[in-house]
Amino acid sequence: MVKYIDPTAKIGEGVTFGRFVVVSENAEIGDGCVIGNGVVIHPGAKIGGNVRVDDNTVIGKQPMKAANSATTSDQKLPPAIISDDCIIGTSVVIYAGATLGKRVLAADLSTVRENVSVGDFTIIGRGVAIENFCKIGSYCKLETNVYITAYSELEDRVFVAPCAATSNDNFVGRTKERFKHFKGVTVKKGGRIGVNATILPGKVIAEDTLVAAGALVTSDTLPRKIVAGVPAVVFRDVPEEQLLENQDW
Fold first, then answer.
1. What is the radius of gyration, based on Cα positions, of the chain?
2. Which stretch of DSSP H or E encloses residue 61?
3. Residue 248: which region, alpha, beta or left (left: phi > 0; alpha: psi -120 to 50)?
4. For residue 34, what is the DSSP state?
5. Closest CA to 130 of 138, 24, 115, 213
6. What CA–CA distances, in Å, run from 157 to 55, 121, 208, 235?
7. How far apart, in whole angstroms, are the C-alpha atoms of residue 204 and residue 79?
8. Higher-pLDDT residue of 66, 196
9. Which residues of 62-79 are buried (b: 16+ CB within 10 A; e: fewer)?
10. Strand pairing class (225-228; 233-237)
11. How far apart are the C-alpha atoms of 229 and 68, rounded to whole Å?
12. SS3 call for 216
C-alpha cells in the first residue's frame, strides 16, 4: 500500500504525505504539514501545524529496555508532542514522552529520547543524541554529533560545538553504588562548550562560561570565564562584547 492512516487519526487541512507512511491510532497532524516517504507516526503522537517531517523519520517510538539498563524503565510513556513550525530531518527518532517546542529544527539522524523537553527555536544538529530525562531550553544550538547524557539540563541560549560529550556516571558502569549517584551536566544560561570538549558527571557550567575546544571539565565553572585545558582551568574572562547581555537579539 502507498500509505496507511488509521481511521482514528486526526489529519488537518492541506497535509501532504509521501509513500509508505504509517499514521497510527489517535495520532494528530495539524494543518499544512508535509510528511515525507516512509515516516512512521506512533499512536497518539501530536504534531502541530506547518511541521515538516522528512523521509524515514519515526515519531513517538516507545523506548527499548535492555536487561541491565540503569536509566530506562518498562512504563508505557505518553505520546510525543511536536509543536508548530518544527522541521524534522531524515531518519530522526523522536521517542514517546518527548516534547519539542515551536520552530525546533531536529536535523538528519538526530535522536531525542523519552522524558525530554526541548524549548522553542532550538537547533538539534545532525547526529545529535539527547538521552532520557533531559531538559533543553529555548534558542539553544547543539551542533553535529553532540552527546547530551541522561539527567542533564541546558538552560536558554546554550551553544554546544560539534562532538562535545557529557557523562553521568563517575563509576563507569561498575558497582551498585553508581545507581545512587547518576547525575548529568547542567549548563546555565548562555553557556558555551567548544568542539570536542568533555564534561564529567554532575558538573555545572555557569552563566556565560566558555569551555574551550578539547577541554576536560572536572569541576564546576565560574560565570563569565573561559576555561581551557586538561583538566580545565580558568584561562581569562569572557570578552565583554561576547557576553549574552551585550548581544542584539
1. 19
2. strand 58-61
3. alpha
4. E
5. 115
6. 29, 10, 9, 22
7. 31
8. 196
9. bbeeeeeeebbeeeebbb
10. antiparallel
11. 35
12. strand
What's the grid cell of residue 221? Answer: 565553572
Confirm whether pTM is higher than 0.90: yes
Q: Which amino acid is at 29?
A: I
Residue type, 190: G
The answer to whether residues 125 and 146 touch, using CB atoms and an 8 Å cutoff, is yes
Residue type at 237 in one-letter notation: D
Whether the per-residue pLDDT at 71 is higher than 60: the answer is no
In the numeric block, the cell 500500500 is attached to 1
- Note the pLDDT tens digit of each residue in 156-211: 999 999 999 999 987 877 877 777 777 999 999 999 999 999 999 999 999 999 99
Give me the DSSP letters along 115-181. Answer: S-EE-TT-EE-TT-EE-SS-EE-TT-EE-TT-EE-TT-EE-TT-EE-TT-EE---TTTT-SGGGGG-
Q: Cβ(23)–Cβ(8) under 8 Å? A: no
Tally: H helices and E strands in the chain: 0, 33
d(CA 176, CA 185): 21
Query: Is the confidence at residue 1, as pLDDT, over 60?
Result: no
Give the 3-state secondary structure of residue 246. Answer: helix
Which residues make beta-bridge pairs with 230?
Answer: none
* Alpha-carbon span 229 to 212, nearest angstrom: 8
